[in-house]
Amino acid sequence: MNFFRSSRLDSSTRDGTRNGHSGTPRSGDGEPYTRLKQRVQQRLLAELSPQIDTKNVEEVRRALERIFVEVLAEEKVPLSRAERADLFEQIVADVLGYGPIEPLLRDETVTEILVNGPDQVYIERNGVLEETDIRFRDVEELLRIIDRIVAPLGRRVDESSPMVDARLPDGSRVNIIIPPLSLVGPCISIRKFARTVYTVDDLIRLGTLTEEMAEFLRACVLARLNIVVSGGTSTGKTTLLNVLSSFLPSRERIITIEDAAELQLHQRHVVRLESRPPNVEGRGEVTIRQLVINALRMRPDRIIVGEVRGGEALDMLQAMNTGHDGSLTTAHSNSPRDTLRRIETMALMAGMDLPLRAVREQIASAFDLVVHLDRLIDGSRKVVQITEVQGMEGDVIVMQDLFRFVQTGVREGRVQGYFTGMGVRPKFMDKIEAAGIFLSPSIFAPVRR
Fold first, then answer.
1. Residue 444, helix vs strand vs coil
2. Closest among 83, 92, 38 to 65, alpha carbons compared
3. Tens digits of per-residue pLDDT, 165-197?
């Protein structure tokens, strides 16, 4: 396997960055170190015969270490023990991992990695973006890492296909876009897969919601209400969906449908479905909509759709209105009202030529609750609204806030505020009580400040 093949596109024409330009150097960079790396890589390519299994990490690592020691002896470059170990790990990352961003993928405090061309790498940590001092040597190195991401998935990134969505072996989501669409050079956006599964107690401790709100949401899930979790990008929708899913009874058959498998359910009877993009020939695509239709034939007790983005919204609405209650999903939006507008638009994308009022009636009948999240200016994520969908009045869907987060200011960079009930008893309380769950009316009481 050629780990170091040249890019299909010349880097000097991509963004004005010529080979050899490295920006801020990484540890172990500089002419002697670059020469060492190149020598080791050339020797490795020459010696990686068919007898060496390139998928065997330990075997390739041993071969690398032997060649590294030999090249160091030949070049006679003075290196301390720390410099020697650092340079070797960089070479291993270049060959077996993802080069300069490999340490970021291993860092559990980093939630997102954003590469904007070879000279700019940002990370998100604790909800806040920060620039790192990590740089790629040149565009060619960045393209090699991109090839390493997409090649095992049977995908490609080139002038004919300059955008791709992919998933790393650990479950992290990756989006890649290259010139001519990107004017800053090849870009990589990685949303890391959360290894730590947050519980409802964690969200209460972090201030995402209150005990009363959590108790109410648990009752709604157990009473088989249809719930949509909404919010902007990186507001914690999947995390909250995981928490809501943890309330589901273990005796039920649960089918999850996702673009990229992120849900982590611990119930025993879970069937996980994942959409599939087209292959390099443009064939073999399986959409979320196809999976939703298929899931209805699989005798589900609950259907959880990771995110609705298109025409599958109509199929999901029809499922919710034909006995498949207790379903959960997420949607990108700016408010609970905007959530229903977006679902309305997506349902119309199904191409069924339905009257607008008919779609709105289906939405009003299907959804019981919208739980809206927001990421505040200090990076914290909170459930800012829990809103009931009450039905139709004329051509308008009627909604009523049950809980809200009220922001009172910012102190020392931290958002100040409080959660409060709105003093309204939801119309579906009869359904909750029919499930044998009785909530104290006080949980809906406004907080007096």
1. helix
2. 92
3. 888 888 888 999 999 999 999 999 999 887 778
Spell out the residues 6+ positions from residue 279 whose beta carbon is closer than 8 angstroms to its own.
154, 155
Do 248 and 233 touch, CB atoms closer than 8 A?
A: no
Full DSSP string of 263-296 = -----SSEEEEE-B---TTS---B-HHHHHHHHT
What are the structure tokens assigned to 412, written together?
A: 């020392």
Q: What is the rounded CA–CA span in Å between residue 128 and residue 379?
A: 5
Sign of the CA dihedral running 352, 354, 359, 362: negative
For residue 312, what are its two tokens? 């599958």
Q: What is the CA radius of gyration of the chain?
A: 26
44 or 184, greater pLDDT: 184
pLDDT: is 46 or 63 the higher one?
Answer: 63
Helix (H, G, I), strand (E, B) or coil at 379: coil
What are the beta bridge partners of residue 446? none
Q: Per-residue DSSP letters for 116-133?
A: ESTT-EEEEETTEEEE-S
User: 């790990």: which residue's tokens?
Assistant: 89
pLDDT in tens, 317-336: 988 988 889 999 999 999 99
Q: Residue 161 has what DSSP assignment? A: B
- Segment holding 190, helix H or strand E: strand 187-191
Pairing of strands 328-332, 302-305: parallel
Report how far apart, in Å, the C-alpha atoms of 85 and of each of 26, 71, 89, 397 are: 14, 14, 6, 63
- In DSSP terms, 129 is beta-bridged to 124
Q: Name the residue with tokens 């359904």.
A: 431
Q: For Cα atoms 71, 60, 19, give the angle at the middle one, nearest 5 degrees.
A: 60
Tokens 């990590």 sit at which residue?
134
Task: Report CA-CA distances (Å) from 42 to 68, 91, 382.
Answer: 11, 12, 52
